[in-house]
Design a protein that fits this description.
- The chain contains six helices and 25 strands.
- It is mostly beta strands and 477 residues long.
- A hairpin with a 4-residue loop joins β1 and β2.
- The two termini are 40 Å apart.
Length: 477
């Protein structure tokens, strides 16, 4: 692994130093990983755990031009290997600790650089603290790297002071790990997600780039941060110990913080604003995961769901976006395998019939009594589609299957399909020729599909049919 960097593209002399792996052990008191030194006993096992994880990715365009040697993009990854001492015989958990992306677009001196860093994970590997880094744009070089065919002022005009800002987005998360009993095991249940941001001048970027270690000790995450918002997930049975099976109750979404509320200054008093927001369904709550004293934020409660019983397989039966809106009812089939009806609070209903071989809808009726129907072959692939309904009180669309004097049959071969001369009652039909490459065929051809698309309804004798044949290697459509 130590010799791999010698194989990397090295045309950008101002790129940050290459990553090196981090070996760690989870500290239950600090609730994060702490670095450890490898020993002769565990060195092989820890390095072996990194097998299969990406270290670097370079994207080129091989077009024969001099710029072909310059990548479009470069991504590199830092791996963390956590030593697991609570496993019989030992073990290790490998994950991506940092990732850095350069977008060169074949211009070495002016890449866009973005990085993500995991500051902490819980004992089950769920990320609890992470930072997204948007590096400032590099200082303008003396000469333009763009081709001489472009205007001289183009490169200089693309620079702006706002690009010379280091932007950090800090995300913190909490999780519920259902691991306390043998009957139920479900780690990684999200509870809270909060985002904050910092902005610093370009001079604040460490000379070796930003890493986990520099963020911990460099002071870039101290001082006043801008609150960006939060989400809090609530589960049936309560977040302290949710009920089993795990079912979502609703979500709390931050909507109005100090910056948004400032827009109402001078328009209404604080008491008037509070009354209006309360009437609109917003709730004032304390910001979660606060590190200092912070003002409250107005949130909206969304995504309420009512579930069925165990005999109904806990399927969702009613849903509504907020408590100010009516409920949408969901009707299932006899065995709760598929949704047959969805009816909103206003009574508008959508109905679906199924091909139970594939649990796929083959006939849908919308609230305006418009019908869409498809037929499927034995592999579940669509072979024809049609639609019908009413327009201005008059029937429109293709002939319904139940009204056909002679039921339409999808042609079995391309030759049969190409021989069609009369209008057909479908918007589209497809003929699959999967076995045309077989040795038993007299004239072997690659697998292909014929698609016939009609330009008007079959009641119009002027109907025309567009025919398209697509050949493939048999693996990709």
């Amino acid at each position: 692994m130590t010799t791999l960097p010698a194989e990397y593209w090295s045309g950008d002399t101002r790129a940050w130093p290459h990553f090196t792996p981090r070996f760690s052990q989870y500290d239950a008191k600090q609730l994060k990983d702490v670095a450890v030194t490898l020993t002769d006993e565990n060195q092989d096992e820890m390095y072996r755990a990194m097998k299969g994880l990406p270290l670097r990715n370079e994207v080129y365009g091989e077009d024969g031009t001099p710029a072909a040697a310059i990548p479009y993009a470069v991504s590199e990854y830092r791996v963390q290997v956590r030593q697991l001492n609570n496993m019989v015989g030992g073990g290790a958990l490998a994950s991506t600790l940092e990732s850095r992306d350069y977008s060169y677009e074949r211009v070495i001196s002016d890449p866009q650089c973005h990085q993500t860093i995991t500051l902490a994970s819980d004992e089950w590997g769920n990320t609890t603290d992470s930072v997204s880094v948007a590096y400032p744009r590099r200082a303008k070089p003396a000469t333009s790297p763009y081709p001489s065919t472009l205007p001289d002022t183009l490169f200089a005009s693309s620079y702006d002071e706002q690009q010379r800002v280091l932007r950090l987005t800090h995300q913190r998360q909490t999780w519920y790990n259902w691991t306390q009993d043998e009957a139920h095991f479900l780690p990684g249940i999200p509870l809270v997600v909060r985002d904050d941001s910092w902005e610093h001048s370009a001079e604040k970027v460490p000379s070796g780039g930003i890493t986990l270690e520099s963020l911990i000790t460099g002071g870039l995450l101290t001082g006043s941060a801008q609150y960006l918002g939060h989400q809090q997930f609530y589960w049936k049975g309560g977040n302290t110990k949710p009920s089993w099976p795990l079912l979502s109750d609703y979500t709390e979404q931050a909507m109005l913080g100090d910056a948004e509320l400032a827009a109402f200054d001078g328009i209404m008093t604080a008491s008037e604003l509070t009354a209006q927001l309360t009437q609109a369904g917003y709730i004032s709550v304390t910001r979660p995961l606060a590190l200092t004293s912070e003002s409250k934020v107005w949130v909206a409660l969304k995504g309420f769901t009512d579930y069925g019983s165990a005999s109904q397989f806990y399927r969702p039966l009613q849903q509504r976006d907020t408590k100010l809106t009516g409920k949408t009812s969901i009707t299932w089939d006899t065995h709760y395998c598929a949704v047959t009806d969805i009816q909103d609070a206003a009574g508008a209903k959508t109905h679906a019939d199924y091909d139970y071989r594939f649990l796929t809808p083959n006939h849908i009726i919308d609230p305006n009594d418009n019908h869409q129907a498809v037929t499927l072959d034995v592999w579940g692939r669509p072979t024809s589609s049609r639609f019908w309904g009413t327009e201005n009180g008059a029937a429109q669309g293709y002939t319904q299957p139940s009204a056909e004097k002679v039921p339409f049959t999808v042609p079995a071969t391309v030759e049969e399909a190409l021989a069609i001369t009369n209008p057909i009652p479908v918007a589209q039909c497809l003929v699959y020729c999967d076995s045309s490459w077989m040795a038993a065929e007299s004239s072997r051809m690659p697998p292909h599909t014929l698609v016939i698309t009609t330009d008007r309804y079959d009641t119009d004798k002027q109907q025309q049919r567009r025919q398209t044949i697509s050949f493939s290697d048999g693996f990709w459509p």
